[in-house]
Design a protein that fits this description.
The protein is built from ten helices and 13 strands. The strands form three sheets. A nine-stranded mixed β-sheet has the order 5-4-1-6-11-8-12-10-9. Helix 7 crosses helix 8 and helix 9 crosses helix 10. The longest helix is centred in the C-terminal third of the chain and has 14 residues. 38% of the residues are buried.
């Protein structure tokens, strides 16, 4: 019987340099898609999947993320006194003790960030959500919930997989597949940012993982890889053959909100779906493109 996935790690220590100057004083994870910050979408996705403990791996200057999920006394009191609608704050207050913050003192890569949460994760399987990778399920099931459902069926380790054009593969971790069954791909290897034209497939790792706790032991002695950073992909690759690994093809839309273009796409796509502003934005977009 597989252990329930109760914990999720959110690596949020990055500096967000691609969005300067907007991120000089504001964490990139708090940049809004329409009117909700990226980190809020990520936490809501985790809650939908049954996650009980949110583990945020932060860095200097990221205190606003902690504040976002806390009580805002002045704001809430003022809104109540004025009889204002409080629904906009729904989901921003997590249960006491269910939001855990740990520092990554040095920017040594994703693998190092995950390793910083090792004592909180303990001996349980856990999820990882990269908020920059905005996985939007629309009116359907969210990405992590799809992965948890797959985990309940096959166990082991799972990685969200997306198909991209071959020319984009040098920018991502890529799956080396060993058979496909429906939405599940058996993984026999992983390659981090392969050289152009050398990728074993066009299936990329897309910012969502369910991993067994043994990955922390691998990360303990993991050497630096691509980009001079401790790569989570390298640690997972070392576990393949020892534990089951599957890729789960996400049914939904993915927006790379670590890039300006992807961030704007996400805002436009979600704005068009809104009952309150969708018609206005659609008319404006048509006017812009002539």
């Amino acid at each position: 019987m597989t252990k329930k996935i109760r914990k999720a790690v959110f690596p949020v220590a990055g500096l967000g340099t691609r969005f300067l100057p907007a991120t000089k004083a504001v964490p990139k994870e708090l940049l809004p898609v329409v009117d909700r910050p990226l980190i809020q979408y990520a936490v809501d996705e985790a809650i939908e999947a049954g996650i009980e403990e949110m583990i945020f791996v932060t860095g200097r200057g990221k205190g606003a993320i902690e504040d976002h999920f806390d009580i805002a006394y002045e704001l809430e009191a003022t809104q109540r006194e004025r009889g204002k609608d409080m629904s906009g704050l729904k989901g921003t207050r997590l249960t006491p003790g269910n939001a855990i913050f740990v520092r990554q003192q040095e920017p040594l890569g994703l693998g190092h960030a995950i390793w910083c949460a090792r004592h909180i994760v303990g001996d349980e399987p856990f999820a990882i959500i990269l908020p920059d990778e905005f996985m939007y399920g629309g009116k359907g099931t969210g990405c992590l919930k799809q992965m948890v459902d797959a985990y309940d069926a096959v166990g082991g380790n799972l990685i969200c997989a997306l198909d991209v054009p071959m020319e984009q593969t040098p920018s991502y971790g890529v799956l080396d597949p060993d058979g496909v069954k429906g939405d599940l791909t058996v993984i026999k290897g992983l390659v981090e940012k392969p050289a152009a034209g050398t990728a074993p497939s066009t299936l990329i790792i897309a910012g969502r993982y369910i991993l067994q706790p043994e990955v922390m032991t691998v990360l303990e002695t993991q050497e630096k890889g691509a980009g001079g950073e401790i790569q989570l992909t390298d640690a997972m690759a070392a576990m393949i053959g020892k534990q089951a690994f599957h890729g789960v093809t996400f049914k939904g839309d993915r927006y790379d909100c670590g890039s300006k273009a992807g961030y704007i796409e996400a805002n436009l796509a979600l704005a068009l779906e809104r009952d309150d502003i969708g018609a206005h934005i659609r008319a404006f977009a048509k006017k812009l493109v002539g």
